[in-house]
Amino acid sequence: xxxxxxxxxxxxxxxxxxxxxxxxxxxxxxxxxxxxxxxxxxxxxxxxxxxxxxxxxxxxxxxxxxxxxxxxxxxxxxxxxxxxxxxxxxxxxxxxxxxxxxxxxxxxxxxxxxxxxxxxxxxxxxxxxxxxxxxxxxxxxxxxxxxxxxxxxxxxxxxxxxxxxxxxxxxxxxxxxxxxxxxxxxxxxxx
Length: 191
Description:
By secondary structure, the protein is of the alpha/beta class. 34% of the residues lie in helices and 15% in strands. The longest helix has 15 residues, at 80-94. The protein is elongated, with a radius of gyration of 19 Å. Residues 163-182 and 185-191 have low confidence and may be disordered.
């Protein structure tokens, strides 16, 4: 089984047409609604296994239900929208004196941005939206918070954020926070 390399959002249709030309038996649509739409166009009724990360396939009408999807689409739905709000709660607990929450997002994770932005004020955090325009731009998300030293930033679950972004010296990374928590010391910015 072969799947297009994420996160070439613009190239999904081209990539799935290439797979169809190779006469694959099953298509794999991972992550975005755009991937599923492109797979549906190319599959011509062949089975599609879905890993829906940033949309609800039941709410959008792609499957009848999670237990009995019907049609040619089946798979897994990862409830990232609920998890985006949970990330805000965790940031609040980890940084109890925080007043601002950086919310990084990309073209794939806009719905996660909205869910996090809705949850932030309920927990006393001012959401600051930080658009990331590509894998290499994730380091810029940390620089966008330079005027809010010590305030947390959350990253979405997205193929585009699955690379290691180097944080600026003024912000704590999640890895530094984990090391600090286990050692009993206060998190410090990464140097």
